[in-house]
Amino acid sequence: MSQDPAVVPARSRSARRYVRDVESASGREGRKDNGMSETLTVGVLGTGIMGAAMARNLIKAGHTVRVWNRSPGKAEPLAGDGAVVAPTPAEAVRDADVVITMLYDGDAVRDVMRDAFPAARNGAIWVQSTTVSLEDVDRLAADAADHGFAFFDTPVLGTRQPAEAGQLTVLAAGPAERRDEVTPIFDAVGARTVWLDQPGAATRLKLVANSWVLALTHAGAETLSLAEALGVDPDKFLQVIEGGPLDNAYLRTKVGLVRGDKLSPAAFAVTTAEKDARLIAEAGRQHGVRLDLAEAGAERFRRAAEQGHGDKDMAASYYASFEKDEGTAAQTR
Ligand SMILES: NC(=O)c1ccc[n+]([C@@H]2O[C@H](COP(=O)([O-])OP(=O)(O)OC[C@H]3O[C@@H](n4cnc5c(N)ncnc54)[C@H](OP(=O)(O)O)[C@@H]3O)[C@@H](O)[C@H]2O)c1
């Protein structure tokens, strides 16, 4: 376990269940004596890959969850898990203690929150988990202040499977005096929470982490395509690096998705990865750092999407190694 006080492991699920059981047995319905709420009403805006998984884990942790998604078909299955499916963002956030946004980008967050703000309870907490630009964080934090929200800049690390397992790493920056209220939410969706000082700091760390993830993804994709083009058995390459410092579980996972034709459903879609690559490149430009890999990586994702792989897992960067109509390895998959 980390000794860093800013890194807090989530309370175990059995401990959470115990608290719920004790509270419901004592008839308190989750309200603690100090007025803080263990069982919260949460409005989740955006039930894509990540939002749907987070909503399910919030329900499992005993919270009352209302969900809204632009395409209703992605929100409706959550009714079977116990969510209330709301027809509008406003309905999803009405009376919510906490509002979570897990949308595509900053523009989508602003559009959706424009509808949600008037219906929200004054003093509610906004957990903004969409990966957005640094300027977006500032703008959204200002919007939150204008509308009486306590704003938490809260991007997450981890993809579909950790999200479904409630094992995300939550990067969180927001008002220290409201941390206790939002901790049950982070415990429900994550394995640990990394606390940072100011809104913006969490998104900066998220962009740094994604810079590494995207670079690894492209490195694996290019290495696989080169091996195939040179007639090198990819298994030989994987054997050569096995167990050494160059070996990497992430490389094996992503290469395995391409070779096993398992790019759908995506854990992290090509189009979303391109958006993140451009956020990273822009952040670098603004801070005087040249990020050649991020720029080139964004172009690989763009080309893969242009070839029709936009909804596939970002390991489909592999396809960008080939011309679309060339009779290459990509066409045989
Ligand atoms: N997947 C990952 O591994 C991962 C990991 C960490 C962080 N993230 C970040 O988390 C966020 C969500 O990612 P995801 O993978 O869950 O993506 P996703 O499955 O594509 O979900 C995106 C969501 O945004 C909604 N949306 C897009 N544009 C919108 C608009 N203009 N107005 C309203 N709603 C809009 C989509 O609604 P529709 O269903 O109607 O399209 C969907 O609910 C992104 O910022 C991503 O960078 C993703």
Describe this entry's structure for a reader:
By secondary structure, the chain is α/β, with parallel strands linked by helices. It has two domains: 7-196, NAD(P)-binding Rossmann-like Domain (Rossmann fold, 3-Layer(aba) Sandwich), CATH 3.40.50.720; 204-332, N-(1-d-carboxylethyl)-l-norvaline Dehydrogenase, domain 2 (Orthogonal Bundle), CATH 1.10.1040.10. The protein is 47% helix and 13% strand. The protein has 13 helices and ten strands. It has helices at residues 13-25, 49-60, 72-75, 89-93, 106-116, 134-146, 160-164, 179-189, 201-229, 234-241, 249-259, 270-286, 292-309, and strands at 7-9, 41-45, 64-68, 84-85, 98-101, 125-128, 150-153, 156-157, 168-173, 190-196. The strands form two sheets. A six-stranded parallel beta sheet has the order 4-3-2-5-6-7, with helices on both faces. Helix 9 packs across helix 12 (270-286) and helix 12 runs antiparallel to helix 13 (292-309). The longest helix has 29 residues, at 201-229. The model is unreliable at 13-37 (pLDDT under 50). NADP nicotinamide-adenine-dinucleotide phosphate (NAP) binds next to helix 2, helix 5 and helix 12.
